[in-house]
Amino acid sequence: MTRDIDELVGQLTLDEKASLTAGADNWSTVAIERLGIPSVFVTDGPNGARGPTLPGLGDEGTTTAVCVPCGAALGATWDVELLERVGALLGAQARTKACRVLLAPTVNLHRSPLAGRNFESYSEDPLLTGRLAAAFIRGAQGQGVATTCKHFVGNECETERMSADSVIDERTLRELYLLPFELAVREGGSLGIMTAYNRLNGAYGPDNRELLDDILRGEWGFEGFVVTDWFAQGDTVEAAAAGLDLEMPGPRRFYGGKVADAVRDGRVDEADLDAAVTRMLGVFNRIGALDDEPVGAKSIDRPEDRALARDTATSGIVLLKNDGGVLPLSLLSGGEGGRVVVIGPNAERTSIMGGGSAQLKAHYQVTILDALLDRFGSPAGAEGQAGEGGVEIVYEPGADTVRSLPAMEPDDGFAMEVFVGPEFAGDPIDRRDQPNGELWCFGPPSSGAGRDFSVRLTGTFTPASTPGPPSVESGPWLLSLAQAGRARLLVDGVVVIDGMTRPLPPGPSFLGTGSQEVRLERDLVAGQPVEVVVELANPAGALLSGVRVGARPAPPPDLLDRAVAAASGADAVIVVVGTSNEWESEGHDRESMDLPGGQDELVARVLDVHPDAVVLVNAGAPVSMPWADRARAIAQVWFGGQEAGNAVVDVLTGAADPGGRLPTTIPVRLEHNPSYGNFPPEHGEIRYGEGVLVGYRWYEARHLPTRFPFGHGLSYSSFSIGAPRLSSTTWEPGSTVVVEVDVTNTGDRSGCEVVQCYVAPLASKVARPPKELKAFAKVSLEPGATTTVRLELDGRSFAYWSVHDPVSAELASRLQTWLTASSPPSDTGESSGWVVDAGTYELHVGRSSADIAHVAEVVVPSEFLVEARVAEARLP
After folding, report:
1. Is 229 marked active-site?
2. DSSP collapsed to 3 states, 31-86
3. Whose CB among 400, 625, 631, 775 lies 3.0–4.6 Å from 757's, allowing a Cys bridge?
4. Any idea which of 160-169, 517-526, 687-696, 842-851 has the lowest mean pLDDT?
5. Residue 874: is its pLDDT beyond 60?
6. pLDDT band at 869 (very low <50, low <70, confident <90, very high)
7. In angstroms, rounded to a whole number, what is the distance separating the alpha carbons of residues 464 and 849?
8. Cα torsion at 368, 374, 378, 381 (round to 10°)?
9. 408-451 tens-digit pLDDT
10. Helix (H), strand (E) at residue 415
11. Whole-number pLDDT of residue 465
C-alpha cells in the first residue's frame, strides 16, 4: 500500500524525525510505532546477502546465503545481462533475510594492485564498472530492495581509510572516479548511495555538499537516500546541510537526537531534516518496506541459484595463456586415464570471497580439490584412488600460506562470561556459549555491560589427528592470539601469550583496528585435553574490540620437496596458488604483489619438472607471476563463490568455455603501476598524482610493458571480428554513432568473445589517454555461427571534462592590456563541463586494449560543450 509521505512526515514530531536519521542498531533503522513506521533491515551484499549479522559476533546462527563470485570476477565477465541476473539473485536473497536494503555494489576503481578491496570492486575502468553496476542495480531493485552504491567517492585505499584525504583534481574525479556512480544513478536508478570513510579534498563524504547536493542530486537527478559507511566521521550541521539522510549504525554519534538539538538552537534548518526523512521514507515506501511485518531470516538454497552461481564463476574465469593447447586437459576430458597431481594450498582451501564486510556464511563451498575428487575420484571420492575414466587424483599442498591460524574450536565450544568493567571483577552479568575462538564486539557484548567491559572464554581443547597430508597425531601445534583491545591466552592455567600487560604490535586484524597475530609452538598429544582460557578487556571503551585465538598442527618442513617429487611423475599437474580473505580484505592493503608463503618458488620448481603444469591463480587482484613466461597454461579464477570448484573443473575439462576477460591490467612489476609513489597515504594524504592515466591508460601512455593487458582473455574456440560499419563518420551534437561489428566463431566448439571499442583522439587541447573504452559487448556463439554486435557512441564517448578557471577571463583582459604578445589563458568559458574538441577520433575495435582488429575514424566538425554544470549552448 502506497502511503502519502509528505503527510506522514508532517505527523512526526521533531524528535521522531531526528531519530529516523540514525540507525537503531547495527542493521536496522528506527521504528515509529505510533505511525506504523517499521524498522527496515539492511544487509551487506557485494557477493551475497548475509542478512543482519556479522561473522564473529556470534549472532549469525545457522543462517546461510548464496555466495556469488567476488566483484573482480563479476567485472571479468564483461556481461551486462548476466550482472542483471546476479543482482536479481542477491536482491531476492536479501528478501529471504528480511532485509530491504542491499549494501552493494562496490564501484570504486582498481587504482593500485595492492588496494585491499580490489576483489570487491569490478574494474580499473569507469565505464566497464558503471555499466555492470547499473545492470546489477536494476536486477536487485527489481526484487523490492534498495541498493546503496558505494563508497562515494575516492575510496581506493584501505590504509588510514577513516582519516586519509584523497586529493583528486576535478577533471580526474569527473572522468574516472565519479563516472561509475553517475552510471549507477542515471542508468541503474540506484535508490541509495553510501558515502566513503575517507576525506575528499579535505571534506568527509557525509559533509560534502558539492558531492551530495550539487552533483549527486542537482546534476544527476538522484532521488534516493544517502547513508554513511558504518562508523564514518561526520559533522551534524555540515552533514544536514550537505544532504546526508542516514547515519549508520546506531546508536547515533553525530545524527539522530543531535540533529533535533541543532534544529532547536538554530544551527540546522528543519527543512533540511524534513527533506532527509522524506527521501528515506520515500524510498522505503517505493519498495514496499513500510508495509512489512516482522519476519525471521531464512536460508533458501535453490537449484537455479546454484546454477547461476556456477555459470557466473565460469563466465569470469580468464584464460591468460594456453600455449600448445594444454587446456582443456585431455586426460580429464578424453577418458584415457592417468595420474593427476594437484598441488597448492588453494586447491584444498579454495578462497571463495575476500575479507571484511563482504564475508558471509555460504550455503556450501566446493573447493577445486573437492570438485576433482567428486568427478574423477573413486566412487567414495577418495584421494589417490583411480576413479572415473581411470583418473587417479593425488594432492600435495606444497606451501603454507595461512596468515592467521584457524580459530580454535574447543570440544564443546567456549563458555563465555561478560563482566562490567575491564577487570573481570564481580559476578558475570551474562553467560552464553561461543562456538570458537573468534569474538567480535561492536560495542558492549551484552546489555548493561557498558563501554568498559571484559569477557572471559573458557573451554577444553583436545588435539585430534588430522587427515590428509600431513597427518598429525601428536607433536608440535601452533597457537596464536590477535586482539583489538587487551587480551591474553592461558593454557592449563598458565599465561602463554600476554597482550594485557604489553599490547601486541599493531596489525591487520579486526579490519585494521587490531594487532598482529602472535604465535607460539607447543607440543600437544592427540586425545589429551588441555584447558584454554581467553580473556578480553575493553578499557578504552572502543566501538570495536575483539579477540582471535587460533590453533593448528605445525606444518612439516618438506612441503615443497614433496610437491615437486609428486609432480615429476605425473601425467598431468594442476597447481592452484593464490591469496585468501586474510591477504585481501577490507581494513588493510597488501604489501606486495608476490604470492604469499613461497608460492612463486613452488610454481617455478613444479615447472622445472613438469613444463605443461596448469597454473590456476585463486586471487581477487593481480599477482606478480614471475614464472608466467615459462608456464604454458595460466588461468585467473578469482574468488569464485560457492561454486568455485565446480566452475574451475568445468573449464579444465572443457565442459565450459573460460568466458572471462581481464577487468584490470596485470603489470610486470609493482613499480610500473600508475599509483606507485602515491600509494598508500603519506602524512594523511593520498595523492592521485597520475590524474586521468589509470590502468591501461597509464601503461599505454608511458609505453610500459604489461604481464597481461586490460581486456585480455582467451577462448577454447577462435573468432574473427569483422570490419566495423558506422552509421555516420561524423558526430554532431545530440547524435549517436552506431558501430556494427560482425563476429564469427571460426573454431570447432562453442565459445565466448568480447568485442571492445576504444576511442582515441588524434589531437586534443588537453592531455588525454591514448585511448579509452567507450563500448563493449559479449557474445556466445556455436561453431560457424555469426552475429552482429551493435555498439553506440554518444557525445560523452568523445568528451573530456573541461575545468573552468573562474579568473581566466579577468586574466585574459589583463594580459591583453599589459602584455599584448603573451598567450591568453586556455580556458575562457563560463562553466566546467563535458567538451568535445573538433578533430578526428579513431575507433579501435578489438578483443583487448592491446589486441585491436580494426580502426575506423569519426570526425567532429567543431567544438561542442556536451553537458555543463549549468546548461550551456555551443561553445564560441
Report:
1. yes
2. CEHHHCECCCEEEECCCCCCCCCCCCCCCCCCCCECCCCCHHHHHHHCCHHHHHHH
3. 775
4. 517-526
5. no
6. low
7. 53
8. 80
9. 999 999 999 999 999 999 999 999 999 999 998 888 888 888 88
10. strand 414-420
11. 54
Least confident range of 54-58, 503-507, 520-524: 54-58
CB 531 within 8 A of CB 493: yes
Angle (nearest 5°) at CA 398 between 392 and 402: 125
User: Hey, what CATH topology would domain 717-868 get?
Assistant: Immunoglobulin-like (2.60.40)
Say what the pTM is.
0.93
**CA pair distance 267, 13, nearest whole angstrom:** 18
Could you say which DSSP state residue 655 is in?
A: S
Which band of pLDDT confidence, cut at 50, 70 and 90, is reported for residue 870? very low
Dump pLDDT digits (tens) for 377-404: 754 445 555 566 689 999 999 999 998 8
Catalytic option among 229, 370, 589, 600: 229
Q: For residues 796 and 800, give the distance between their C-alpha atoms in angstroms, rounded to a whole number.
A: 8
Determine the topology of domain 5-51+67-291 in CATH: TIM Barrel (3.20.20)
Determine if residue 545 is left, alpha or beta; phi over 0 gives left, psi from -120 to 50 gives alpha, anything else beta: beta
- Three-state secondary structure along 821-869? CCCCCCCCCCCCEEEECCEEEEEEEECCCCCEEEEEEEEECCCEEEEEC
Task: Give Cβ neighbours of residue 699 (< 8 Å, ≥ 6 apart).
Answer: 665, 667, 672, 674, 705, 706, 709
First and final CA of the chain: distance in angstroms? 53
Reference 128, options 638, 710, 701; nearest CA is 710
324 burial level (CB within 10 Å; 0-12, 13-18, 19+): exposed
Instruction: Fold for 414-553, please state it.
Output: Jelly Rolls (2.60.120)
Q: Which residues, at least 6 apart from 871, have a Cβ–Cβ distance to it below 8 Å?
A: none
pLDDT at 588 over 80: yes
Cell numbers representing residue 444 in the block: 558492549
Domain layout of the chain by residue ranges:
5-51+67-291, 303-404+558-696, 414-553, 717-868
Fold of the 303-404+558-696 domain: Rossmann fold (3.40.50)
Q: Which amino acid is at 599?
A: Q
Which triple of cell numbers denotes residue 492?
A: 592449563
User: Could you tell me what percent of the chain has a pLDDT over 70?
Assistant: 93
Residue 622 backbone class (left: φ over 0; alpha: ψ -120 to 50; beta: rest) = beta
Dihedral, 763, 767, 773, 774 alpha carbons, nearest 10: -60
Contact indicator for 262, 280 with CB cutoff of 8 Å: no
Q: Say if residue 730's pLDDT is above 60.
A: yes
Residue type, 208: N
